Amino acid sequence: MAKTFVEDLEETRIPFLRGILIHSLQDAGLEFDEASQIASEIRQQIADKSLVSTVELNQLVLDRLSSLGRDTIVNRYENRNAPLTIQVEQQCGRINPFSRLKFRQSLETIGLKPRQASDLAQMLQEHLTKKAVKTIRSRELAMLLYRYLRQSSKFGPAVARRWLVWHDFINSGRELIFLIGGTAGCGKSSTANTLASRLEIVRTQSTDMLREVMRTMIPERLMPVLHQSSFTAWKALPDLDPDDEKVSEAQLLQGYRSQADMLSLAIEAVVARATRERVSLVLEGVHIHPASMEKLQSDTNAVVIPIMLGLLKRKHLQQRISARSTNVPDRGKKHYMKNFDEIWRLQSYLLSEADGADIHIAINENRDKVFAEIMQFTIALLAKEFKGKPAKVFGEKAFVDQKE
Asked: Can you give the residue range of the structural domain that contains 144?
């Protein structure tokens, strides 16, 4: 039988060797018998060819593996010539390559700074590579990091406990409901997007959007307060002249509360549905009043995290509002800057109400810092009812393996 040669991109030719292919398939995770069978099938496919390229040969192997539904093996085989890839076996049985980026993000979730998280993720990858670890269970990986954090003079038991509490919550399957309040320009939307992105929460909702839907259903002549901004709702109150340039504190707050009350049922419905479907949610908006936060906390068994955002300096809030860019006139910066005094007074009210209701207030001067603060507050709430032990959180086997 004529010999088939394999030619690489540098035009180097070597004979096709079934044993070499078997070895590569075994490295990708196949048992010898299955690897041998596939290598024999590939040899038969190319038997009538005197020359095949490495690209053609690889594609034949990948097609055969794919036809068998061996997606994990396909991924490993494709990356067999790359630096050692550590595979992480999840609790559900799914296997994913170790991702330093994702591990860094999970460390940022417990309040570590980006550089600290990046250094830790790199150190962990280098440790596993040095040990020639090819596959590790996710719980063993988490336990390994827990032990390092606990023993580290740089981090210590407090940080290790945050990792333990958060990992326990992730394994619990419980839903998180973030309620992000605050006035216009304080960064509610960007904070909500950051939380949703980093925690992989797919459901988000803004009260502005709920208000917009209600506006399409209820005409302005029937509910004029609904068709104003939260800080100009007072203009639609009975017996008030909308052309007045000055508004009293009482009128400003009455207008705001009237609009917030109109949206309260819609807000409660959004939270109720997320709870019923057991999915996490990030809900943000100026209409999330501290009183409504308390009610939503008491009406659900989900873990509810109420946060009131704010900026303590007028110029900082003005800069945020001035930087807005939108084509919608009512959302343009001119509309906001014209009514900045009302926005500032409304923020003072919301922050004061939040303080009186013991709602956590986060000063949003930096996106990464406010995310870290919210997550530390979240984990602190979870820690109040946490009574687990490492062996229970990470699994007895992971605990014993790492102890050894």
From this structure: 95-171+393-403
pLDDT in tens, 303-352: 999 999 999 999 999 988 887 654 344 456 788 898 999 999 999 999 99
Rg of the chain taking only CA atoms, in angstroms? 29
Structurally, the chain folds into a number of domains equal to 3
Q: What is the DSSP string of 190-259?
A: HHHHHHHHHHT---EEEHHHHHHHHHHHS-TTT-GGGGS-TTTGGGGSTT--TT-S---HHHHHHHHHHH
262 located within any domain: yes
- What mean pLDDT is predicted for residues 217-231? 94
241: how many CB neighbours lie within 10 A of its CB? Answer: 7
Nearest residue to 111 (alpha-carbon basis) of 310, 385, 369: 369
Asked whether the predicted pLDDT for residue 234 surpasses 60, the reply is yes
Spell 96-125 as b/e; 16+ CB within 10 A means b.
Answer: eebeeeebbbbbbbbbbeeebbbebbeebb
Residue-wise pLDDT for 37-84, tens only, equals 999 999 999 988 889 888 888 889 988 888 888 777 887 777 665 555
Q: How far apart are CA 218 and CA 263, in angstroms?
A: 12
Residue 358 lies in a domain: yes
Q: How many other CB atoms are there within 10 angstroms of residue 172's CB atom?
A: 12
- Whether pTM > 0.70 for this model: the answer is yes
Q: Measured between alpha carbons, how far is residue 393 from residues 144, 185, 238, 280, 383 in Å?
A: 13, 40, 58, 21, 13
| Cα 60 from Cα 367, distance rounded (Å) | 48
Instruction: Say if residue 36 is in the same domain as residue 101.
Output: no
> Distance between CA 79 and CA 69 in Å, rounded?
18
